[in-house]
Amino acid sequence: MTQFNLPNNSKLINGNYFKDKSGSKNIKKVNIYRWDPDKNENPRIDTFEVDLKTCGNKVLDILNKIKNEIDPTLTYRRSCAHGVCGSCAMNVDGVNTLSCMKSHKDISGDINIYPLPHLKVIKDLVADLNTLYKQYESIKPWLKTKDNKKKTEINQTKEDRKKLDGLYECIMCACCSTSCPSYWWNGDKYLGPAVLLQAYRWIVDSRDDERKERLKEVADKLKLYRCHTIMNCTNSCPKGLNPAKAIASIKKMLATN
Ligand code: SF4
Ligand code: SF4
Ligand code: FES
Protein backbone atom coordinates (compact mmCIF):
# COMPACT_ATOMS: atom_id res chain seq x y z
CA MET A 1 0.00 0.00 0.00
CA THR A 2 1.27 3.50 -0.80
CA GLN A 3 2.50 5.33 2.26
CA PHE A 4 2.25 9.10 2.29
CA ASN A 5 3.53 9.79 5.80
CA LEU A 6 7.08 9.63 7.05
CA PRO A 7 7.83 6.32 8.77
CA ASN A 8 7.69 6.78 12.56
CA ASN A 9 11.44 6.39 12.97
CA SER A 10 12.08 9.24 10.47
CA LYS A 11 9.95 11.79 12.23
CA LEU A 12 11.88 14.76 13.64
CA ILE A 13 11.64 15.13 17.39
CA ASN A 14 12.73 17.92 19.74
CA GLY A 15 16.25 17.25 20.98
CA ASN A 16 18.56 18.72 23.59
CA TYR A 17 18.67 22.37 24.64
CA PHE A 18 22.11 23.80 25.37
CA LYS A 19 21.75 26.99 27.41
CA ASP A 20 24.39 29.70 27.22
CA LYS A 21 26.63 29.76 30.30
CA SER A 22 28.49 33.02 29.53
CA GLY A 23 25.73 35.41 30.50
CA SER A 24 26.29 37.32 27.26
CA LYS A 25 23.59 39.70 26.03
CA ASN A 26 24.35 38.83 22.39
CA ILE A 27 22.85 35.35 22.15
CA LYS A 28 21.62 33.62 19.00
CA LYS A 29 19.54 30.47 19.08
CA VAL A 30 20.76 27.90 16.57
CA ASN A 31 18.61 24.86 15.74
CA ILE A 32 20.56 21.99 14.19
CA TYR A 33 19.45 18.68 12.66
CA ARG A 34 21.06 15.73 14.43
CA TRP A 35 21.03 12.05 13.58
CA ASP A 36 23.44 9.36 14.68
CA PRO A 37 23.39 6.06 12.72
CA ASP A 38 24.87 4.23 15.72
CA LYS A 39 21.93 5.06 17.95
CA ASN A 40 18.52 3.61 17.35
CA GLU A 41 16.85 7.01 17.69
CA ASN A 42 14.78 9.37 15.57
CA PRO A 43 16.44 12.42 14.06
CA ARG A 44 16.11 15.41 16.35
CA ILE A 45 16.61 19.16 16.41
CA ASP A 46 19.08 20.32 19.04
CA THR A 47 19.03 23.97 20.07
CA PHE A 48 22.20 25.81 21.06
CA GLU A 49 22.42 29.26 22.58
CA VAL A 50 25.55 30.78 21.04
CA ASP A 51 27.37 33.89 22.25
CA LEU A 52 27.94 35.91 19.06
CA LYS A 53 30.30 38.30 20.86
CA THR A 54 32.97 35.62 20.87
CA CYS A 55 32.18 34.14 17.45
CA GLY A 56 33.25 34.92 13.86
CA ASN A 57 30.75 36.24 11.30
CA LYS A 58 30.01 33.11 9.31
CA VAL A 59 27.62 30.24 9.98
CA LEU A 60 30.64 27.90 9.89
CA ASP A 61 32.16 29.91 12.77
CA ILE A 62 29.02 29.14 14.79
CA LEU A 63 29.30 25.42 14.01
CA ASN A 64 33.00 25.42 14.94
CA LYS A 65 32.23 27.22 18.21
CA ILE A 66 29.52 24.70 19.09
CA LYS A 67 31.83 21.78 18.27
CA ASN A 68 34.81 23.24 20.16
CA GLU A 69 33.00 24.58 23.20
CA ILE A 70 29.60 22.93 23.60
CA ASP A 71 29.13 19.57 21.85
CA PRO A 72 32.17 17.87 20.24
CA THR A 73 29.93 15.19 18.70
CA LEU A 74 28.37 17.65 16.22
CA THR A 75 29.33 16.34 12.77
CA TYR A 76 29.67 18.38 9.56
CA ARG A 77 32.09 18.70 6.65
CA ARG A 78 34.44 21.64 6.17
CA SER A 79 37.94 22.22 4.97
CA CYS A 80 39.03 25.49 3.33
CA ALA A 81 36.68 27.92 5.11
CA HIS A 82 37.06 30.21 2.07
CA GLY A 83 34.41 29.05 -0.42
CA VAL A 84 36.89 26.98 -2.41
CA CYS A 85 36.50 23.30 -1.49
CA GLY A 86 32.69 23.05 -1.48
CA SER A 87 32.61 20.67 1.47
CA CYS A 88 30.64 22.85 3.92
CA ALA A 89 27.46 22.95 1.77
CA MET A 90 24.29 22.62 3.85
CA ASN A 91 20.81 24.08 4.16
CA VAL A 92 20.86 27.28 6.24
CA ASP A 93 17.65 29.13 6.87
CA GLY A 94 15.88 27.21 4.10
CA VAL A 95 18.54 27.82 1.44
CA ASN A 96 21.34 25.56 0.26
CA THR A 97 24.61 27.41 0.70
CA LEU A 98 28.23 27.26 1.83
CA SER A 99 28.26 27.76 5.58
CA CYS A 100 31.74 29.34 5.39
CA MET A 101 30.44 32.07 3.06
CA LYS A 102 27.08 32.70 4.71
CA SER A 103 27.08 35.51 7.27
CA HIS A 104 24.87 34.83 10.29
CA LYS A 105 24.35 38.61 10.49
CA ASP A 106 22.04 38.27 7.44
CA ILE A 107 19.70 35.98 9.40
CA SER A 108 17.15 37.51 11.71
CA GLY A 109 15.70 35.30 14.43
CA ASP A 110 16.81 31.72 15.08
CA ILE A 111 19.18 30.03 12.65
CA ASN A 112 17.96 26.67 11.31
CA ILE A 113 20.58 24.33 9.90
CA TYR A 114 19.87 21.07 8.06
CA PRO A 115 21.90 18.78 5.78
CA LEU A 116 21.54 19.25 2.00
CA PRO A 117 17.98 18.13 1.16
CA HIS A 118 16.80 14.89 -0.44
CA LEU A 119 20.01 12.95 0.15
CA LYS A 120 20.60 10.11 2.58
CA VAL A 121 22.05 11.42 5.81
CA ILE A 122 25.29 9.84 6.98
CA LYS A 123 25.42 11.70 10.29
CA ASP A 124 24.08 15.09 11.48
CA LEU A 125 24.85 17.60 8.67
CA VAL A 126 26.81 15.16 6.50
CA ALA A 127 24.79 14.05 3.47
CA ASP A 128 25.66 11.12 1.20
CA LEU A 129 27.11 12.45 -2.08
CA ASN A 130 28.25 9.07 -3.46
CA THR A 131 25.66 8.99 -6.28
CA LEU A 132 26.55 12.53 -7.35
CA TYR A 133 30.27 11.72 -7.41
CA LYS A 134 29.62 8.59 -9.50
CA GLN A 135 27.58 10.72 -11.92
CA TYR A 136 30.44 13.23 -12.02
CA GLU A 137 32.89 10.44 -12.86
CA SER A 138 30.52 9.24 -15.62
CA ILE A 139 30.96 12.48 -17.62
CA LYS A 140 34.76 11.95 -17.64
CA PRO A 141 35.78 15.31 -16.22
CA TRP A 142 39.23 15.43 -17.78
CA LEU A 143 40.74 16.50 -21.09
CA LYS A 144 40.45 13.82 -23.77
CA THR A 145 42.70 14.09 -26.81
CA LYS A 146 42.67 11.66 -29.73
CA ASP A 147 46.43 11.58 -29.95
CA ASN A 148 47.58 10.05 -26.69
CA LYS A 149 51.16 10.86 -27.56
CA LYS A 150 50.38 14.59 -27.44
CA LYS A 151 52.53 15.59 -24.52
CA THR A 152 53.03 19.26 -25.23
CA GLU A 153 50.97 22.14 -23.93
CA ILE A 154 47.78 22.73 -25.97
CA ASN A 155 47.22 26.42 -26.56
CA GLN A 156 43.84 28.15 -26.55
CA THR A 157 42.85 31.46 -28.08
CA LYS A 158 41.66 34.09 -25.62
CA GLU A 159 38.15 33.70 -27.06
CA ASP A 160 38.13 29.93 -26.52
CA ARG A 161 39.48 30.32 -23.01
CA LYS A 162 36.69 32.81 -22.27
CA LYS A 163 34.08 30.14 -23.05
CA LEU A 164 35.10 28.39 -19.81
CA ASP A 165 34.31 31.42 -17.65
CA GLY A 166 31.26 30.79 -15.50
CA LEU A 167 31.98 27.04 -15.68
CA TYR A 168 35.50 26.38 -14.37
CA GLU A 169 34.64 28.14 -11.09
CA CYS A 170 32.23 25.35 -10.09
CA ILE A 171 33.43 23.70 -6.88
CA MET A 172 30.98 20.74 -6.98
CA CYS A 173 29.35 21.76 -3.71
CA ALA A 174 26.01 20.21 -4.81
CA CYS A 175 23.90 23.16 -3.60
CA CYS A 176 22.30 23.34 -7.06
CA SER A 177 21.57 19.64 -7.59
CA THR A 178 20.04 19.27 -4.15
CA SER A 179 17.73 22.23 -4.75
CA CYS A 180 16.45 20.82 -8.05
CA PRO A 181 13.03 19.12 -7.85
CA SER A 182 13.85 16.94 -10.89
CA TYR A 183 16.99 15.72 -9.11
CA TRP A 184 15.03 15.08 -5.90
CA TRP A 185 12.69 12.68 -7.64
CA ASN A 186 15.07 11.14 -10.23
CA GLY A 187 18.50 11.62 -8.66
CA ASP A 188 19.60 8.12 -9.64
CA LYS A 189 18.95 8.74 -13.37
CA TYR A 190 18.93 12.48 -14.03
CA LEU A 191 22.49 13.87 -13.91
CA GLY A 192 21.37 17.11 -12.27
CA PRO A 193 22.65 20.68 -12.68
CA ALA A 194 26.08 20.32 -11.03
CA VAL A 195 27.14 17.38 -13.20
CA LEU A 196 25.56 18.81 -16.36
CA LEU A 197 27.36 22.13 -15.86
CA GLN A 198 30.58 20.14 -15.56
CA ALA A 199 29.69 18.11 -18.66
CA TYR A 200 29.21 21.37 -20.58
CA ARG A 201 32.52 22.70 -19.25
CA TRP A 202 34.30 19.82 -21.08
CA ILE A 203 32.02 19.92 -24.14
CA VAL A 204 33.01 23.55 -24.87
CA ASP A 205 36.70 23.17 -24.07
CA SER A 206 38.43 23.84 -27.41
CA ARG A 207 41.35 21.56 -26.42
CA ASP A 208 39.12 18.49 -26.06
CA ASP A 209 38.77 16.13 -29.05
CA GLU A 210 35.64 14.27 -27.93
CA ARG A 211 32.91 16.89 -28.11
CA LYS A 212 30.63 14.73 -30.26
CA GLU A 213 31.05 11.66 -28.03
CA ARG A 214 30.43 13.76 -24.91
CA LEU A 215 27.24 15.22 -26.40
CA LYS A 216 26.05 11.77 -27.44
CA GLU A 217 26.71 10.47 -23.95
CA VAL A 218 24.42 13.03 -22.22
CA ALA A 219 21.72 13.12 -24.93
CA ASP A 220 19.31 11.00 -22.94
CA LYS A 221 15.74 11.63 -21.85
CA LEU A 222 16.60 10.83 -18.24
CA LYS A 223 20.19 12.05 -17.94
CA LEU A 224 19.52 15.45 -19.55
CA TYR A 225 15.91 16.11 -20.49
CA ARG A 226 14.57 15.77 -16.94
CA CYS A 227 15.55 19.44 -16.60
CA HIS A 228 12.34 21.46 -16.84
CA THR A 229 14.03 24.85 -16.45
CA ILE A 230 12.65 25.41 -12.95
CA MET A 231 15.78 27.53 -12.18
CA ASN A 232 16.17 26.60 -8.49
CA CYS A 233 19.71 25.52 -9.35
CA THR A 234 20.84 28.92 -10.60
CA ASN A 235 19.14 30.70 -7.70
CA SER A 236 20.98 28.58 -5.14
CA CYS A 237 24.54 28.55 -6.53
CA PRO A 238 26.76 30.21 -3.89
CA LYS A 239 29.38 30.94 -6.57
CA GLY A 240 26.89 32.88 -8.71
CA LEU A 241 27.04 30.38 -11.60
CA ASN A 242 24.21 29.52 -13.96
CA PRO A 243 23.81 25.74 -14.35
CA ALA A 244 20.36 26.17 -15.97
CA LYS A 245 22.00 28.14 -18.79
CA ALA A 246 24.69 25.46 -19.21
CA ILE A 247 21.96 22.81 -19.51
CA ALA A 248 20.06 24.92 -22.05
CA SER A 249 23.30 25.33 -24.02
CA ILE A 250 23.81 21.55 -24.17
CA LYS A 251 20.22 21.11 -25.40
CA LYS A 252 20.78 23.82 -28.02
CA MET A 253 23.99 22.19 -29.25
CA LEU A 254 22.17 18.87 -29.57
CA ALA A 255 19.31 20.49 -31.46
CA THR A 256 21.54 22.37 -33.89
CA ASN A 257 24.50 19.98 -34.41
S1 SF4 B 1 16.66 24.44 -14.31
FE1 SF4 B 1 16.79 22.23 -14.57
S2 SF4 B 1 18.50 21.64 -13.33
FE2 SF4 B 1 17.93 23.71 -12.67
S3 SF4 B 1 16.53 23.37 -10.95
FE3 SF4 B 1 15.35 23.48 -12.78
S4 SF4 B 1 15.04 21.38 -13.48
FE4 SF4 B 1 16.73 21.42 -12.03
S1 SF4 C 1 27.13 25.11 -10.12
FE1 SF4 C 1 27.32 26.27 -8.22
S2 SF4 C 1 25.92 25.24 -6.79
FE2 SF4 C 1 26.27 23.84 -8.47
S3 SF4 C 1 27.93 22.54 -7.76
FE3 SF4 C 1 28.84 24.21 -8.97
S4 SF4 C 1 29.38 25.77 -7.47
FE4 SF4 C 1 27.96 24.37 -6.47
S1 FES D 1 34.77 24.98 3.91
FE1 FES D 1 35.47 24.96 1.81
S2 FES D 1 33.80 25.90 0.78
FE2 FES D 1 33.23 26.10 2.86
Structure description:
The chain has 257 residues and is an alpha/beta fold. The protein folds into 2 domains: 8-127, Roll (Ubiquitin-like (UB roll)), CATH 3.10.20; 130-256, Alpha-helical ferredoxin (Fumarate Reductase Iron-sulfur Protein, Chain B, domain 2), CATH 1.10.1060. It is 28% helix and 15% strand. It has 8 helices and 8 strands. The protein has helices spanning 59-70, 130-138, 158-162, 181-186, 192-203, 211-218, 232-236, 243-256; strands at 13-18, 27-34, 44-51, 89-92, 95-98, 111-114, 121-123, 126-127. The strands form 2 sheets. The protein has a 6-stranded mixed β-sheet, with helices on one face. The protein has a two-stranded antiparallel sheet with strand order 7-8. Strand 4 (89-92) and strand 5 (95-98) form a beta hairpin. Helix 5 crosses helix 8 (243-256). The chain starts with 12 loop residues before the first strand and ends with a helix. The mean pLDDT is 95. It binds iron/sulfur cluster (2 copies) and FE2/S2 (inorganic) cluster.
Percent in helix: 25-40%
**Number of domain units:** 2
Report the CATH topology name of the largest domain: Fumarate Reductase Iron-sulfur Protein, Chain B, domain 2
Could you spell the SSE succession in H and E letters?
EEEHEEEEEHHHHHHH
CA radius of gyration is 21 Å
Tally of individual helices: 8
What is the molecular shape?
elongated
The CATH class designation of the largest domain is: Mainly Alpha
Span of the ends, CA to CA: 47 Å
**Proportion in β-strands:** 15-25%
How would you summarize this macromolecular structure in one to three sentences?
With 257 residues, the protein is α/β, with parallel strands linked by helices. Helix content is 28%, strand content 15%. The mean pLDDT is 95.
